[in-house]
């Protein structure tokens, strides 16, 4: 397999091959593949997903080892392979298809919950109106006169229903941010409470008013007003349980990304585990730098190289006593392992030197490119001798002068997969339109930003899995640990309770601030 990889890497670095060399190369690669096809157990259980073709400017060559290249490698290398760096097994593909099927069930559950809430809300708003209109429809001739006070209650009911409608729309009818694995307990309890409350009012109304055909219409209107008042109090209770209760910080959550160890701290209130996970994910896309798997390939290759140097062979056979020689070989391998920190030090120093050098070239190239643009004022646009351009055309005009320096810098820092040529042109035209400086243009590329800064459809995880030993509907407690998993990495969340703080007061009299100058014989005053 290593021979096949060597052949593939050789193929990625060529510039011009003759027809004979291509044929010999293809025959050599077939010879290397022939023993692999015989035992073919690995090739039948895994599949490689090819990355989509990149833009002509920024090829996705993060899998190539760039440490051994000089600064002018781009002038002699013209061919780029399409080898992918992501591979998953057939079991993972089956799991992904199962997740897609489960997502259909989640959509049905979400729409079912919205339908139940909408029907219940419609019943709540129509109930007071029905209480007032049914006597007028069924036994209008037998009703007592309403009077001035009763007619004033109609205005009270109308405005209270309007306030309740606006508050319900603001609190409940909002676009959902996520599909949670379990129901929201407090919201479900509120729905059950409202249903029982309205059912009780209807039951009393049917027994005491409809059956007896009560003629006291003023009392019926007051009964409807009491229902609206109770609904307003339930809405206030919903605001306390759903919004205000979680505002006071009670816990501190440490979030660690499993791949590179990047961590953040967040303050959380009284939340369930699933809602705390939702808060963590919302802050993750804003605060954490974008996940870059290309940065981990160098450390993995270095670790594999060092592990390969720790092999010990017994050349005298298993029957001979060669313990002394084996201990000597183990000691030599240990010394080689201990010297690996020198390799890491010089490797990182060389990488930092290359990054600083290409960063300086990029800054100079961008500043020179921006000097060729001048914004025309309103009075200058009529008498401008040259050809006028819009921001898009201006960006396309100055982009070639900085493209090579930007390409080399993004490849060195392994960011080329996040920036296509179209996205760079859009950002450049945006900076030109808003009269931004070259430093403002380079801020996106010199400092890796959060995931929200990049393409949403490509770098956002569609599915997250919440793993917890406790029930996800239970509240946060001290020492709770849960994990949020996606396809490439996971977020480990450790919850700690904020300790109780006791403050004491100490009064200092302002008149007590008196000082004395102490003079000594050595003092030069």
From TrEMBL:
Pfam families: Strabismus (PF06638). Signal peptide: none annotated. It comes from the Eukaryota. Keywords: Cell membrane, Membrane, Transmembrane, Transmembrane helix. Residues 36-45 have a biased composition (Basic and acidic residues). GO terms for cellular component: plasma membrane. Its main location: membrane. Residues 74-86 have a biased composition (Polar residues). It is a multi-pass membrane protein. The chain crosses the membrane at residues 111-133, 153-172, 184-204, 224-244. Belongs to the Vang family. This is VANG1 protein. It comes from Hylia prasina (green hylia). The lineage of its organism: Eukaryota, Metazoa, Chordata, Craniata, Vertebrata.
């Amino acid at each position: 397999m290593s021979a096949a990889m060597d052949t593939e890497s050789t193929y990625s670095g060529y510039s011009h091959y003759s027809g004979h060399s291509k044929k010999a190369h293809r025959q050599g690669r077939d010879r290397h593949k022939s023993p692999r096809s015989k035992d073919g157990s690995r090739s039948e259980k895994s599949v490689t997903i090819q990355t989509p073709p990149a833009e002509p400017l920024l090829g996705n060559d993060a899998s190539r080892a760039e440490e051994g290249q000089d600064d002018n490698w781009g002038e002699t290398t013209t061919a780029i392979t399409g080898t992918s760096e992501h591979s998953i097994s057939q079991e993972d593909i089956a799991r992904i298809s199962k997740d897609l099927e489960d997502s259909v069930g989640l959509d049905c559950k979400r729409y079912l919950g919205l339908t139940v809430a909408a029907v219940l809300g419609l019943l709540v708003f129509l109930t007071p109106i029905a209480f007032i209109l049914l006597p007028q429809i069924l036994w209008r001739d037998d009703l007592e006169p309403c009077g001035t006070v009763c007619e004033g209650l109609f205005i009270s009911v109308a405005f209270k229903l309007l306030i309740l409608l606006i508050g319900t729309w603001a609190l409940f009818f909002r676009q959902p941010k996520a599909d949670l694995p379990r129901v929201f307990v407090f919201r479900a309890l509120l729905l059950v409470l409202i249903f029982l409350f309205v059912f009780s009012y209807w039951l009393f109304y049917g027994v005491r008013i409809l059956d007896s055909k009560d003629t006291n219409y003023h009392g019926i209107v007051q009964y409807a007003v009491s229902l609206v008042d109770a609904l307003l109090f339930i809405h206030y209770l919903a605001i306390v349980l759903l919004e205000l209760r979680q505002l006071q910080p009670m816990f501190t959550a440490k979030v660690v990304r499993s791949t590179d160890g990047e961590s953040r701290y967040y303050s959380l209130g009284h939340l369930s585990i699933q809602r705390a996970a939702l808060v963590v994910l919302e802050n993750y896309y804003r605060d954490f730098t974008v996940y870059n798997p290309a940065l981990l390939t160098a450390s993995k290759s270095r670790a594999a190289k060092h592990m390969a140097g720790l092999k010990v062979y017994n050349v005298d056979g298993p029957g001979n006593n060669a313990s002394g020689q084996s201990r000597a070989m183990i000691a030599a391998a240990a010394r080689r392992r201990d010297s690996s920190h020198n390799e890491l030090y010089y490797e990182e120093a060389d990488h930092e030197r290359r990054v600083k050098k290409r960063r300086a070239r990029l800054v100079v190239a961008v500043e020179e490119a921006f000097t060729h643009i001048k914004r025309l004022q309103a009075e200058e646009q009529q008498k401008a001798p040259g050809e006028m351009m819009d921001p898009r055309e201006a960006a396309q005009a100055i982009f070639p002068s900085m493209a090579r320096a930007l390409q080399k810098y993004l490849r060195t820092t392994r960011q080329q997969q996040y920036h296509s040529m179209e996205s760079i042109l859009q950002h450049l035209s945006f900076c030109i339109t808003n009269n931004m400086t070259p430093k403002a243009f380079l801020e996106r590329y010199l400092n890796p930003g959060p995931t929200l800064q990049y393409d949403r459809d490509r770098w956002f995880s569609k599915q997250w899995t919440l793993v917890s030993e406790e029930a996800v509907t239970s509240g946060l407690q001290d020492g709770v640990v849960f994990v949020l998993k996606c396809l490439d990495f996971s977020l480990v969340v450790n919850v700690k309770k904020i300790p109780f703080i006791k403050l004491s007061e100490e009064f200092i009299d302002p008149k007590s601030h008196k000082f004395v100058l102490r003079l000594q014989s050595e003092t030069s005053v």
